[in-house]
TrEMBL record:
Residues 334-360 have a biased composition (Basic and acidic residues). This is Uncharacterized protein. It comes from the Bacteria. Keywords: Membrane, Transmembrane, Transmembrane helix. The chain crosses the membrane at residues 9-27, 47-67, 79-100, 112-130, 158-182, 194-213, 234-253, 273-297. It comes from Actinocatenispora comari. Residues 305-360 are annotated as: Disordered.
Amino acid sequence: MRNRFEPRWAVATGAWALGYGGLRVWWATGHRPAFGPLGWDLLLVSPWQPVLVCALALLAAVAMRAAPRRWAPPVGCAVLAATIVVSCPLVLLDLVATVLPGLGLPYDPVSILSRAGYLLGAVLLTVAAVRRTRLLRGACPRCGRTDRSRPAGRVPAWAWLGGYLAVAGCLARLAAQLAVGIGAGPMRAGPAEVAFEAGFLLAGTLLPLATVHRWGRVWPRWLPGLRGHRVPRWLVLGPASVLAAGLLVYFGISLAQLVVDPSGWTAGYDLPLGFFWVAIPAYVLWGLGLAAGTVWYRQRTRPRCRRCGRGAPSSPTATRPGASGRRPGSSDQGPDRLDQQPHAEHREQHRGAVPDETFR
């Protein structure tokens, strides 16, 4: 197998490791900023932990070039990326505080930039690990397809379950809030809180259901001007991926802290301990369900690969309405037959609009 770990990824990973690692050495030797108002930027065992991670990332980049047939380098990259992500649990709060500054959440630009710089390394390492793993499997490094890959069909049971478990987690979190009172919590009342609650409801109901329902891929017929056109893939995939990762990291660590030291949660909040035992697991359930739906949505909406060409219809007649010999409006597969036709993926993504027959 020819070594296809592109030089640009090796150079980018090495540059990040040297740059961010050098900055952390400077901070670890007594020049650390204040990181207000929390006083810390990363969840670390030692201030030298990021330095060690950067050094190992540099070695991993070299190993990816030197040992193209080995599984150890991509596995090491994946472990390092996971270590970085777990060290940045406050990224979810950073996003919320940046978009809605009026909520009163802790906000420190230096801490946010530090976490963003650390997460850049996780992105580089993840891309390197995924591409090398695909090559070792004999798949396309860009899309991950092989000659045995087939277009995604109807929604699998695990994706349906994930989408609705995410909604259940959101509703459980709302029930916990109603039990203690709407006004109880650390956020300030005002327009920012109203916007947050609206986004909270949309992210907990509409977003997970969009990953498993047809209207998450094709605009429904009651939307004038958009009827029948495909939904931009990243309009759903982007927010779902970021939110699922943020929920799992932040509230996964919070759940571990709750199990180890329950009394620590009641010290800083005027809320009963039972509230946290309901709210935090509900967030974790929300994140797990949304992650499952997002994985399937990504597979279902993958476009044709520009590198290997896989993902295209096998023949022009396969996507033509009525090509099966039945009347355009007839089917024995139910109202969601677009998801069950073998090449419906390509009709949604490459024609831009779905024929009217699918709405009748």
